[in-house]
């Protein structure tokens, strides 16, 4: 589950490299950056549910912290955490 400064999001577009467009559950659309520790280990595709931590200094961008597997994402949808 996300911390206080993190939000659920759904990846809407892969912009190449390590950048994705994420529709966050707080109603904002942000540019997400995939950190190096995840870049080659976790493949992030359109439609994936992620946890995004918005940047303090630039709220329209953030860092991807976690990607949920399909089963976990379905459970979050059933529980009403994401749309």
Automatic annotation (TrEMBL):
The keyword Protein biosynthesis applies. Keywords: Initiation factor, Protein biosynthesis. It comes from the Archaea. GO terms for molecular function: RNA binding; translation initiation factor activity. PROSITE patterns: IF1A, S1_IF1_TYPE. InterPro entries: NA-bd_OB-fold, RNA-binding_domain_S1_IF1, TIF_eIF-1A, TIF_eIF-1A_CS. Residues 1-69 form the S1-like domain. Belongs to the eIF-1A family. NCBIfam families: PRK04012.1-2, PRK04012.1-3, PRK04012.1-5. Seems to be required for maximal rate of protein biosynthesis. Enhances ribosome dissociation into subunits and stabilizes the binding of the initiator Met-tRNA(I) to 40 S ribosomal subunits. This is Translation initiation factor 1A. It comes from Halococcus hamelinensis 100A6. The lineage of its organism: Archaea, Methanobacteriati, Methanobacteriota, Stenosarchaea group, Halobacteria.
């Amino acid at each position: 589950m996300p911390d206080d400064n993190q939000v659920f999001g759904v990846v809407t577009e892969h912009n190449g490299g390590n950048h994705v467009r994420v529709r966050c559950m707080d109603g904002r659309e942000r540019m997400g950056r995939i950190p190096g520790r995840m870049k080659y280990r976790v493949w992030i595709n359109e439609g994936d549910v992620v946890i995004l931590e918005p940047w303090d200094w630039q709220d329209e961008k953030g860092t991807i912290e976690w990607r949920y597997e399909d089963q976990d994402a379905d459970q979050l949808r059933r529980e009403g955490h994401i749309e």
